[in-house]
């Protein structure tokens, strides 16, 4: 058995082909200039070639960059979060998706640049300043004003698609709500839609408030009677509200809620925190009720008008006479009813007034 101690002996005992291979390896290593000290290997040059010293540079070897591994299979279900997300918008109701929706192109935009509409017979601009609808005359003429406004809106905004007359009434129990529209459908004798509008008697106490509240409620009625849609303040109501402002630019913006300052007749004020409570009548007993914020006592303030000017209390002479003499007449004749006492007081007051006119 022959043991090779080093590559030199192996190269000498090999054939000429092996010597040529060793020569190629030595030449390749010498040209690259790479050698390791203390490796225990001696590369011998081929015979007939002089040994040359290989200069070993002192520079550190460059780091080897790791090559990225090739993935075996493609990655699935990669979720990429977009940088900017678009805001979510509420789409049309699925229930009425098949029905035809009104388009904004139907609105007449020719009057939007003017402060007053050009419709003949329109009286909506500064209607609260008109003589027949201002002050105390408003209460007298409010019913005729409602019908005139409805006819005007039906002709100009809704193209006479609404009925000529609709049930519009006044509600004295609505203390903070300006208006209410009730919609339904009759089944007998025939299937027919209907709408009913109620206006608050205490909130809508002027012609301008009546005008703004009425157009709001008519838009509710039109969305049901014309389009068959009952979506509260949805797309159909918004379309008619926008069309009303385009046709009548003198109207304020038709919005969902009102911002009216309710004109209470009587105000109660707290003596400590000065908080005020409004009432339409003298229904608050100050002996039983206190302030909800600071538990202070409540005092009724003097009566004032809408503009804030105080109202001087006016007591009629006969009422003052009854207040002073009612108890005396009641005690002088026992068994008299209230009506008999009042008749006696009226006779006494008439005699006194004749003597001292």
Number of strands: 6
Shape label = extended
Percent helix, as a range, is: 25-40%
The helix tally amounts to 7
Number of domains: 4
What is the element string, with H for helices and E for strands? Answer: HHHEEEHHEEEHH
End-to-end distance = 165 Å
Query: How are the strands of the largest sheet arranged?
Result: 1-3-2
What percentage of the residues does DSSP assign to strands (E)? 5-15%
Return the average pLDDT rounded to an integer. 76
The structure class reads alpha+beta
Radius of gyration of CA atoms, rounded to a whole number: 50 Å
At a glance:
The chain has helices at 7-13, 16-32, 137-156, 207-225, 235-247, 317-332, 338-355; strands at 167-171, 179-186, 192-200, 266-270, 276-279, 298-300. With 357 residues, the protein is of the alpha+beta class. The strands form 2 sheets. Strands 1-3-2 form a 3-stranded mixed beta sheet, covered by helices on one side. A 3-stranded antiparallel beta sheet has the order 5-4-6, with no helix packed on it.
